[in-house]
Design goal:
single chain; 122 residues; mainly beta; seven-stranded mixed sheet; four-stranded antiparallel sheet; 11 strands; 0% helix
């Protein structure tokens, strides 16, 4: 059973930056796709960014050019550098360490942690 702890969220002004961290423990395949999702009030939980074992990356159009995902396999950790934040980025951010793709559909197969709140003020 994989356990996840997200951290790094907080309150930031528009235009500011935050760096989110996700520490995972348990059995994690080195071949897994890992990434970050976010969920704002009244909205679905959507994929923000993903990274493969070979360090290929994928970003939602809304964050492309502003967010950067990275990982450290030795630490079983995933990170999300968030720059040029806007109020539209306000959400609870969750990581997942077992993201899968089937018929071009991306879905999270792994467990969820508690998430970390990101609030961007205007």
């Amino acid at each position: 059973q994989v356990q996840l702890v997200e951290s790094g969220g907080g309150l930031v002004q528009a235009g500011g930056s935050l760096r989110l961290s996700c520490a995972a423990s348990g059995r994690i395949s080195r071949s897994n796709i890992m990434g970050w999702y976010r969920q704002a009030p009244g909205k679905q939980r959507d994929l923000v960014a993903a990274i493969t074992s070979g360090d290929s990356t994928k970003y939602a159009d809304s964050v492309k050019g502003r967010f950067t995902i990275s990982k450290d396999n030795a630490k079983n950790s995933v990170y999300l550098q968030m720059n040029s934040l806007s109020p539209e980025d306000t959400a609870v951010y969750y990581c997942n360490v077992d993201i899968r793709v089937r018929d071009r559909n991306w879905y999270a197969a792994g467990s969820w942690g508690q998430g970390t709140q990101v609030t961007v003020s205007s």
